[in-house]
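Final report, Chapter 2: Outcomes

The project's central promise was a pipeline that accepts a single protein chain and returns its three-dimensional structure in a standardized token representation, suitable for archiving and comparison. That pipeline is now operational. To close this chapter, we reproduce one record exactly as it appears in the project archive, with the input sequence first and the structure output second.
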Amino acid sequence: MTSHSDYHVYGFKTDEILEYLAKNGFTITAEAIPVELAPPQWPPEYSLFPSFGKHDAALIMSGIIPDEISNWNYWDDPHPEAGRKLKLIDACAEEILALDPDFEFNRDHGRRRWSPTEIDTSEKISQAIWRQWCNSVGVEWPIPERSNGAPTAPATDAELLAKWQQAEIALAEAGKQIEVLQAELRSAQATIDDLRRTAGDKDAIALHNTHLMKIAIQVQRDYWKDLNTPPKQEILCAELMEQYKLTKPEAQAVERVACPIDRKKVLPSG
């Protein structure tokens, strides 16, 4: 139960029910009744609405979602805060309308807004103007501004400092994540190296896999599938010079690294 009247929904006024309870031995003061004016989260579509009438604006400034007020009789006995906001709007109508760059055009062309000092019940004013006016008079406009994907520039030095501190925290967290990922990468690479070593010489994994070393590994795959039929050294070097554009010394070095046998020894005959 809230302290504003719900008689248009439930058929009674707050004062009447409090008086009834008092007669029956229950003393409850209006101040003791909790009033929840600030919704925990505004419906996302409210950020997209282009404009609001003054009654909806008064509710929004009071932290009340307009959709929750389904009967216009609400304004016969509104919540005190909403009533105060509506009176403030009416008192500042000329100031609010002056913020609209199209006011004169709309008035001259008969598009409502006949008076520059009054906001009609059916008149709708852009959400941007409501927000701008609220900021100018120190009233909160609680609907979050629609994000356009681009970061909003800090309006004050305090906001700039806060954003800078947040960026520092985010950067520090990112640095920690990079360190963790690098450690995981080193661990994974060590595991891969261990697995490779199980299939051959423990010294087969190089610390730095250079360009010529990559060629030597490929040479073993292409030319040394069968140790009983080794390629001739001179022919292999010539093919490496042509295929990989190596100099003769480079080709000889690759051939020597890739060669898994001792060419000075005689291979056993099959």
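Archive annotation: The first strand starts at residue 51 and ends at 53.
This record, like all others produced under the grant, will remain available to the consortium after the project formally closes.
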